[in-house]
Amino acid sequence: DTAVSQTPKYLVTQMGNDKSIKCEQNLGHDTMYWYKQDSKKFLKIMFSYNNKELIINETVPNRFSPKSPDKAHLNLHINSLELGDSAVYFCASSQGNSPLHFGNGTRLTVT
Amino acid sequence: GEDVEQSLFLSVREGDSSVINCTYTDSSSTYLYWYKQEPGAGLQLLTYIFSNMDMKQDQRLTVLLNKKDKHLSLRIADTQTGDSAIYFCAESISNSGYALNFGKGTSLLVTP
């Protein structure tokens, strides 16, 4: 009965590869998010998305793209991975301005 | 954008009270939040406060809000070793689809 689930939990890949992280929420929320947590535990918003609007943090490289096949899913696709992309990526969802519910994170390691 | 500020570390003895402070940036934030992150885990919502309140109590947790100074605090009474974690303060971001802007997190260490 996990509310926000992400796969995979761990992802190890080489520089230059393209990878995707999947996220699904079963809460019926209308907005989903991707956050990046770096090695110092700092959390930064990357994207927020509902079926009407995508809001992108201007600091996010365009190698990162969110893809939403339906309201319950928001996947994160990353092209041409770089060493600096290594981090923990968190998916979250909310309904209106209710609190965000987070997934357990995907630890990405780029070698 | 501007940073939500928190002290990075706090160490307390078991049974004492812990107070974690936060200074936020957006005076138009409707809600302010405290999240907890245990090692290797995701973020767990602890509590939140509506911006027109100045205090909220929930069992061992007390949140104080000083809107004039944009200061938020979290007090944990009778702190236990299981409370050791990183605590994040967060504010809602204007014009962002309800995304949250997080502080850098305060690592709380509770010693026996």
Number of strands of chain A: 11
Q: How confident overall, as mean pLDDT of chain B?
A: 92
> Which regions of chain A have little confidence, pLDDT < 50, spanning 5+ residues?
none
Could you say which structural class the secondary elements and strand pairing of chain B correspond to?
mainly beta
Element layout with pairings:
The complex is a heterodimer of chains A (111) and B (112).
Chain A: E1 4-7, E2 10-13, E3 19-25, E4 31-37, E5 43-50, E6 54-56, E7 64-67, E8 75-78, E9 87-94, E10 101-102, E11 106-110
Parallel strand pairs in A: 2-11
Antiparallel strand pairs in A: 1-3, 3-8, 4-5, 4-9, 5-6, 7-8, 9-10, 9-11
Chain B: E1 5-6, E2 9-13, E3 18-23, E4 31-37, E5 43-50, E6 55-58, E7 61-66, E8 71-76, E9 85-92, E10 100-102, E11 106-111
Parallel strand pairs in B: 2-11
Antiparallel strand pairs in B: 1-3, 3-8, 4-5, 4-9, 6-7, 7-8, 9-10, 9-11
Structure characterization notes:
The complex is a heterodimer of chains A (111) and B (112). Chain A is mostly beta strands and 111 residues long. Chain A has no helices and 11 strands. In chain A, the strands form 2 sheets. In chain A, strands 2, 4, 5, 6, 9, 10 and 11 form a 7-stranded mixed sheet that branches. In chain A, a hairpin with a 6-residue loop joins strand 9 and strand 10. With 112 residues, chain B is mostly beta strands. In chain B, the strands form 2 sheets. In chain B, strands 2, 4, 5, 9, 10 and 11 form a 6-stranded mixed sheet that branches. In chain B, a hairpin with a 7-residue loop joins strand 9 and strand 10. The model of chain B has no long low-confidence stretch (mean pLDDT 92). The interface between A and B is medium-sized, with 25 and 25 residues.
